[in-house]
Write a structure and sequence with these properties.
With about 210 residues, the chain is mainly α. The chain is about 55% helix and about 0% strand. It has 9 helices and 2 strands. A hairpin with a 6-residue loop joins strand 1 and strand 2. The protein is globular, with a radius of gyration of 16 Å.
């Protein structure tokens, strides 16, 4: 890949994770977000992944990537920095989206105080799944458009092997081929109207 903020895999992961945090803020539960993305085909859910990566690393990545996403009308969140300040680092200190005090991790309800309170109201599964997944797909299209990627095949391979993008889809670009660019751009346009400018389709998709 060519040089740029986050190169490729970190760059397409950042908006995916940010969308997961926004869904959490809107009322989704930790275990719900992870379970629906496992059903979508990801090998690990976004909440568990954030714990594995570490909140401190997530906060640093968010800070690095924010100028680029904000310039496109993206909505960023500072929650990761607040969580680090509160002592929630993830698996490394056994306290993050989950707690790791026993052999089986448990959702950490304490963390909801940063995301609108303990009352949870899970959104429609398909809409939530597509909000997260299409953020990654759209960003991959931007990477190809900006010559961060040399080819769609490179993007598919990197997303599957580097991030666990659902392998059966063939990767983000093959997913666009399977669903149709018009369908993907249409969904993103619909989400732009419903949820904000961060979903604006990459010109390449249009």
């Amino acid at each position: 890949v060519n040089d740029g903020p986050g190169f490729y895999t970190t760059r397409i992961l950042a908006p995916f994770m940010n969308e997961a945090l926004l869904l959490l803020e809107e009322g989704a539960s930790i275990e719900y977000l992870d379970s629906i993305m496992l059903k979508f085909g990801y090998p690990v859910g976004p909440m568990a992944l954030l714990d594995e990566v570490g909140m401190d690393v997530g906060a640093h990545v968010g800070e690095t990537m924010a100028p680029m996403f904000n310039a496109r009308g993206g909505k960023s969140t500072l929650k990761a920095e607040e969580l680090v300040s509160g002592g929630y680092l993830g698996r490394k200190n056994k306290k993050g989206m989950y707690t790791y005090q026993t052999k089986k991790k448990q959702p950490n309800s304490e963390i909801y105080k940063y995301f609108g309170g303990s009352k949870r109201n899970n959104p429609d599964a398909e809409t939530a799944q597509l909000r997260m997944a299409l953020m990654m797909v759209n960003e991959a299209a931007y990477c190809l458009q900006e010559n961060i990627l040399k080819s769609p095949n490179d993007g598919d391979l990197g997303a599957i092997l580097g991030l666990g993008f659902p392998p059966f889809t063939g990767g983000p670009f093959r997913y666009v081929d399977l669903k149709g660019a018009n369908w993907v751009a249409g969904k993103l346009s619909d989400f732009t109207g419903r949820f904000g400018l961060r979903f604006k389709p990459a010109p390449l998709l249009e």
